[in-house]
């Protein structure tokens, strides 16, 4: 039976070891190959993706700008630029695998605005890591030079952090839903969506990067998805992760997940937002499921395999 699946692509689906345009498109070629099975099975895909490394790199490229003839672009515009570049690569690679599979389906990527609350306390408390990983010393130098805040990111090094307000609504949700109803594969809410606030004069961009897992949960709710499929670097979520007594989670309820969150089982900035986004989606969409697994495990999961699946009961 056809299912409506929001697929949220994590960092390793886009950026492996080569950050060039060619390298990222090659990574997305492999990603597209992992998704074709779902399309062959007749499911509707609504794809979203991260942009943390890419938008941070783009901000660094703005340093080369001058003030008048080639001005630096603000963060909301940089988010839109990464939606454009990643959407372009992915759209081309999805079209390639669809053509190779001899399937007649259109793919389109949409510049997507996500409404946030101008009063969100996240604007005062910067939490979203973007760009490259630095050593403690490099981060100290960069922070002294730019005034930017750097924090340690889940044991992987230091990264610049920016504001990350929660998504309230997706401006283009009806347009996306119309396309999905017409069986078009959409790539939307990339990089969490371009953060905008509502003013008397319409929408206005704000300097922030929305977490793509929360934006994907909102997207899944608004398009009436059956599944929110969060794809990341691990086949399953674990409790006591990376410890001798680590335990793989398979079928779990929202209630169990909340208890483990209270025990600080999931790392902020990496697994925690995924688990919270999964809970938010299933709480707002009672018969739906959220699945957290790796790209490599997707085909196996949808053919009867195992992953971390979060349901209401
Ligand atoms: N409790 C946990 N269970 C499984 N993985 C965890 C856990 N805590 C942290 N992680 C790590 O978090 C990573 C996912 O976060 P991250 O790489 O930031 O996401 P993304 O794939 O969206 O870029 C996993 O690949 C894993 O290494
Ligand atoms: N916007 C966002 O959450 O990107 P990452 O998943 O790449 O951090």
TrEMBL record:
The keyword Transferase applies. Belongs to the carbamate kinase family. Residues 3-285 form the Aspartate/glutamate/uridylate kinase domain. NCBIfam families: arcC (TIGR00746), PRK12352.1 (NF009007). Pathway: Metabolic intermediate metabolism; carbamoyl phosphate degradation; CO(2) and NH(3) from carbamoyl phosphate: step 1/1. One of its GO terms (biological process) is L-arginine deiminase pathway. This is Carbamate kinase. It catalyses: hydrogencarbonate + NH4(+) + ATP = carbamoyl phosphate + ADP + H2O + H(+). The keyword Ion transport does not apply. SUPFAM superfamilies: Carbamate kinase-like. GO terms for molecular function: carbamate kinase activity. The lineage of its organism: Bacteria, Bacillati, Bacillota, Bacilli, Lactobacillales. Pfam families: AA_kinase. Keywords: Arginine metabolism, Kinase, Transferase. GO terms for cellular component: cytosol.
